[in-house]
Specification:
The chain is an alpha/beta fold. It is built from 13 helices and 6 strands.
């Protein structure tokens, strides 16, 4: 798979030299304590290990850590706007506690879907919260699984209040702030004004590597279609009708690769070139967990 190199992009002019130094120092350290954080997508999670990622996924990935207990599964209210205290504030609090408690100096963050936007908010606005600089300083890079970087037409449909709302709400959510935020025109505004990493904008202070899901398979006669939940696959294949030909049933490929750098598109490296639906990209499907495990290893 493509190699990853430490990259420090432009930062806001308002960031002081002292803050910049704090951000850069951990990234150039020759050794440290490695940890991994799992950041869920849209939704108010109280047990994301069980309800979102599954223990099979998390336990497989953390085997790549020198100390396998150095991991955290985030549980926050990502029904809110990304800058809300219940969203980015909660994320910052849990990451800060993890970093301090485990003395983490080399943090790999794995996000899924809207979780990538939450991390980009922190990376793009390092002076917004006093906890942000230390978090950014500890991060090696972000592995963003199916990030909703440019939003999704499905959020547009839900917010419009048309008949799509009932058919899509099970997947997207029902007119929450997070769904409003992920409308394509809203994300275009945020990307142009508040977030870094998209075309024509400054680079992020830490690399964000996107894994792009390109299709949905939901044949009941194909065992691979059952990974991540067969019923979810059926639903995602239905919602794919309103997306581009290249999509994971929730996000167009262009949205997933719209910020940071593309690490790979699913079929380039998955087992038997299986595509990853939006549900499968947060599960141990088709060797995805093994790729992440290898990336966690310092």
């Amino acid at each position: 798979m493509p190699c990853k190199r430490t990259f420090i992009g432009p930062v806001r002019s308002l960031v002081s030299a002292l803050v910049l130094a704090a951000l850069l120092a951990p990234a150039t350290a020759s050794a440290g304590v490695t940890g991994v954080a799992f950041v869920h997508g849209t939704g108010k999670q109280t047990n994301a290990l069980v309800d979102y990622w599954t223990a099979a996924m998390v336990d497989s990935v953390r085997l790549g850590l020198p100390i396998t207990s150095n991991y955290v599964v985030i549980n926050c209210d990502f029904e809110k706007y990304m800058w809300d205290p219940a969203a980015a504030g909660c994320l910052a609090g849990q990451l800060s506690t993890f970093i301090k408690t485990k003395k983490i100096t080399d943090l790999l963050v794995i996000t899924h879907s809207n979780g990538g936007n939450l991390l980009r908010w922190i990376l793009s606005n390092p002076t917004y919260d006093s906890r942000y600089p230390a978090i950014v300083g500890a991060i090696r890079w972000v592995d963003a699984l199916a990030p909703s970087s440019l939003g999704t037409p499905l959020a547009n449909a839900v917010i419009s209040g048309t008949t799509f709302e009932k058919s899509l709400g099970w997947l997207v959510g029902y007119k929450s702030e997070a769904v409003t935020m992920q409308q394509t025109d809203h994300m275009a505004y945020y990307n142009a004004n508040w977030l870094y990493g998209t075309a024509g904008r400054p680079g992020l202070p830490r690399e964000l590597w996107a894994v792009v899901g390109s299709d949905v398979d939901s044949s009941p006669f194909d065992n691979d279609s059952w990974c991540g939940g067969y019923s979810l696959g059926v639903g995602l294949e239905t919602t794919q009708w309103w997306l581009d030909d290249c999509s994971d049933g929730f996000l167009d490929c262009s949205s997933q690769s719209g910020a940071g750098q593309q690490w790979f598109q699913d079929i380039e490296y998955t087992y038997e070139q299986e595509p990853l639906s939006h549900a499968q990209s947060r599960r141990n499907c088709f060797y995805l967990d093994q790729f992440l495990r290898g990336d966690v290893t310092p």
